[in-house]
Amino acid sequence: MCTQKNYNLGISNPCFELWLLLHLEDVNQLSDKEKDKLKWNKRRGKRTHCEHLLCAHLGNYSKSHPDFSQLLPEVNVAIDQADRLTNHGKVDLFESLGTNLQELVRKLLQER
């Protein structure tokens, strides 16, 4: 439906925080067990697994008030890592760990 209406849609499985994590960590290099933990993204206390990983890198992470200042300089790293994680868009994001937010970000960067 999005393609028919010429809309762009960003999807991250399991969550938006995976896209953020790709700015800070090479998820491609994680063990299959760790990737599985990311995919299921279970809660531990008040935070999900992905949020815990972001906190480990950033010192803190607020879902409602994210601080992108440490992430923006690494946007090209995140784009490259997202491409590799999804085999350049050849992975079913409803079934597999990954994101296609890099496609939206590429378009936004081209518009600047």
Structural notes for this entry:
The protein is mostly helical and 112 residues long. The chain has one domain (12-111). 42% of the residues lie in helices and 7% in strands. It is built from 5 helices and 4 strands. The chain has helices at residues 16-21, 32-40, 49-58, 75-85, 101-111; strands at 12-13, 43-44, 47-48, 98-99. The chain has a two-stranded antiparallel ribbon with strand order 1-4. Helix 4 (75-85) packs antiparallel against helix 5 (101-111). It is globular. The mean pLDDT is 93.
Structural class: mainly alpha
Whole-number count of domains: 1
Please provide the count of β strands. Answer: 4
* Shape designation: globular
Average predicted confidence as pLDDT: 93
Sheet with the most strands, sense and barrel status = 2 strands, antiparallel
Strand order of the largest sheet: 1-4
Count of DSSP helices? Answer: 5
Stretches where pLDDT is under 50 for at least 5 consecutive residues are: none
Distance between the termini: 27 Å
Helix/strand order: EHHEEHHEH
Radius of gyration of CA atoms, rounded to a whole number: 14 Å
Estimated helix fraction: 40-55%
Percentage of residues in strands: 5-15%
Keywords:
about 110 residues; mainly alpha; two-stranded antiparallel ribbon; two-stranded antiparallel sheet; 5 helices; 4 strands; about 40% helix; about 5% strand
